[in-house]
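Annotators were shown the component list below and the corresponding predicted structure, then asked to write short factual statements about the assembly.
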Amino acid sequence: MTDAPTEILDATHCALREHGYAEVTMRDIADKTDLSKAALHYHYDCKHDLLVAFLDHLYDRFEARIGDPDGDSPAERLHSLVDALLTEGSENPAFRTALLEIKAQAPYDDAFRDRLRRFDNAFSSRVRTLVADGVARGTFRDDVDPDTVASALTTFVNGAQTRHVGVGHPPAQSATTLHTYIDTALRPRDEPGDGSDTDDAGSASG
Amino acid sequence: MTDAPTEILDATHCALREHGYAEVTMRDIADKTDLSKAALHYHYDCKHDLLVAFLDHLYDRFEARIGDPDGDSPAERLHSLVDALLTEGSENPAFRTALLEIKAQAPYDDAFRDRLRRFDNAFSSRVRTLVADGVARGTFRDDVDPDTVASALTTFVNGAQTRHVGVGHPPAQSATTLHTYIDTALRPRDEPGDGSDTDDAGSASG
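Structure shown to annotators:
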């Protein structure tokens, strides 16, 4: 048994996948639970309030997912982070589409924008920390700026998700580009195999 | 005097900026012209048909805008291309938001998706050609793969536009990242000033 809000938030996830952000109704969400539409309104005044609560719920899960990526070295952990967002996250294009609809609403909706900024900052901070760690350990180039790399990777991941939804560009292909970037652009130039043999970069820099 | 379709398409641009994709109506568009709503329907059956025609119109302008970027060298022309999309294009965040709404509709709408693919392919092809030209001239590294760079830049520009709309990330900052990338990652390693002094990269590689 789950308590009502968790059941509602899980149902919101399903309903968003099925109907998209613009079309989904409180009725659609209630239909995915054992609750009545009236019971749903007891917890959330309107669809907007429920979606804001849903984004908070999603953020908690996102933070847990990116908080401690697998791997020993900063490079390995960056690779895991990229896979967590692009490879694993791509299982569900319909949900990704609903999130893009929400991004497109952000200029009209401060509550959405605040939540989206939390995701943006969380991912960006995680990358920044890993890159700074790699620079400090000497496994990344010492002229790499963690802030610049963090922002660039955040932008690139946004683009991979948008292109996936908009034109069907495979997120796995975007992930490969980032994996190559981590194994080449971030690695010290004098490291053996630099620029060509990058297959073992993760372990070599660990 | 412009003929009716051009007047309608220009009015669509204004109305999309003002109302967004989801909310805009045929009435809103007619109100921006000297035509009646009935006259609008004479040219376009419904809002969807009009928006598809609008995307075609936008594509023609896009193609003209990116077809011959300013500059003598491939690097200079790539810089101009980036500015055309991110610096100049960012003047109008409301219109960019409407386009993101349309991208989020693409999975449900084949006509939108086809049009978005034309934009994606046009930009990507333009980058590919410029990078291949730079590699052939020896002003870009010979191990640079034009296809990979073209796809990466297309993804990054999508991300810059999405982050601008979603979280207000400044597109000029994304443009700076790409300018630096063009001046460092694409340049031959043995070129003077490689990796540090990149201010004159455009002219140095011309």
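Statements collected:
1. DSSP finds ten helices and no strands in chain B.
2. The two ends of chain B are 43 Å apart (CA to CA).
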